[in-house]
Design a protein that fits this description.
Elements lengths: L3 E7 L27 H10 L7 E6 L3 H7 L8 E4 L5 H15 L4 E6 L3 E2 L2 H17 L4 E6 L10 E4 L7 E8 L4 H9 L3 E11 H11 L1 H8 L19 H6 L5 E6 L3 E2 L4 H7 L8 E9 L5 E12 L4 E5 L4 E5 L7 H4 L8
Parallel strand pairs: 1-2, 1-4, 2-3, 6-10, 12-13, 13-14
Antiparallel strand pairs: 4-9, 5-11, 6-9, 7-8, 7-9, 8-10, 14-15
Helix pairs in contact: 3-6, 6-7
Length: 345
């Protein structure tokens, strides 16, 4: 049985969590749940599966000190730094090349750093089943699909084929984040799951598929005398996601259903859904008073925030910036970022 390396993708900026998530301290470093950073919760979850030597973190060079402060037991060579953000495909390819240099027969697992998974035991059981499947089917690439319980427009979807073993399913199609009407249709139809963004494969298989569908990336790496010199070609790398570049095109994709509670914590409404609410359906954190208001997420660091007669909004009141947004429009926070002065980003 091949060894599995576990890669945490920690290079994102979490723009939909503005104003709390900033370029200098993005979402994965924030203590949003259980007084621990999302990154640390992800790392602890993986320690239930393996030891630090088999956990890699890929992140921005800008976060070098934060990563060192977070982790003192991960080998330094297991932390990979991206010179600049290039989306998920280049980061995954670089991680795969790094692991392949260590063990050509290895498998790898890829996890976003900002997911919240409540049941570690069920999560570990699913990953163990995936590992067994990959060892028996080394040409496969697996992802974990989550049973949708509402018509989300925040997640991509996976349409899968029926399976005799009722465990691992062949993927028919990866679907982009839908609009509201399409999301309702996908929820009503059978054989659709949310795409969790977690991927598992033999390292050699994943490299081969990326080489096939992103040949320019292969050519750039082939031009290097050593993988350690990747900084020389990084700015020439295409900025592209693994979903769009590979998973939507490959014939080797399979999925397994996640039997655990899951949230990708991508938006303020996702955080609201996860946190405990008062009798009015409000989540109030910090110095907050509310009256005749319901189903709100209100966070106020120091200043008193008083809310009267508001429903279904997020109010994030920080020292230097305040966001007020309809929770149903949480995805649209990104539209603000381009209009901000650099000091607020």
């Amino acid at each position: 049985m091949s060894k599995m390396y576990h890669v945490i993708m920690a290079g994102g900026i979490g723009s939909r969590f503005w104003p709390m998530s900033r370029k200098d301290k993005p979402k994965q470093f924030l203590n949003l749940i259980e007084d621990e950073s999302l990154l640390n919760l992800t790392y602890k979850r993986l320690l239930e599966l393996t030891t630090p030597e088999y956990i890699l973190i890929i992140t921005s060079t800008k976060h070098k000190e934060k990563i060192k402060n977070h982790f003192n037991d991960i080998p330094e060579h297991n932390i990979i730094y991206e010179p600049s953000p290039k989306n998920t495909a280049p980061a995954i390819y670089l991680s795969a090349k790094h692991i392949y240099n260590l063990d050509q027969n290895a498998s790898m697992a890829i996890y976003p750093s900002d997911h919240f998974i409540d049941d570690k035991n069920k999560f570990c059981e699913v990953v163990s089943n995936i590992s067994s499947f990959i060892n028996s089917n080394p040409e496969s690439i697996l992802t974990i699909g989550i049973n949708p319980h509402y018509p989300s427009t925040s997640y991509g979807y996976i349409n899968f084929a029926d399976s005799k073993d009722n465990n691992v399913f062949k993927v028919n199609q990866f679907l982009e984040k839908p609009n509201s009407n399409k999301a309702k249709q996908l929820l009503d139809e059978k054989n659709n799951l949310w795409n969790s963004g977690m991927f598992f494969a033999k390292v050699s298989t994943l490299i081969d598929e990326i080489d096939t569908y992103i040949p320019e990336m292969k050519n750039l790496f082939d031009s290097l005398d050593s993988i350690s010199m990747y900084g020389e070609i990084w700015e020439q790398m295409p900025k592209i996601s693994i979903d769009y570049a590979v998973m939507e095109k490959t014939s080797k994709a399979f999925c397994i259903k996640g039997t655990f509670s899951w949230s990708d914590l991508g938006t303020w409404v996702a955080l609201y859904d996860l946190l405990e609410k008062d009798s009015n359906g409000n989540v109030e954190i910090g110095n907050v008073i509310s009256f005749d208001s319901s189903n709100n997420l209100i966070i106020s660091n120091k200043k008193l925030t008083s809310v009267v007669g508001l429903n279904n909004v997020a109010i994030i009141n920080l020292d230097d910036a305040t966001l007020v947004i309809d929770l149903s429009k949480s995805e649209e926070v990104r539209k603000i970022i381009d209009q901000l002065d650099e000091k607020y980003k």
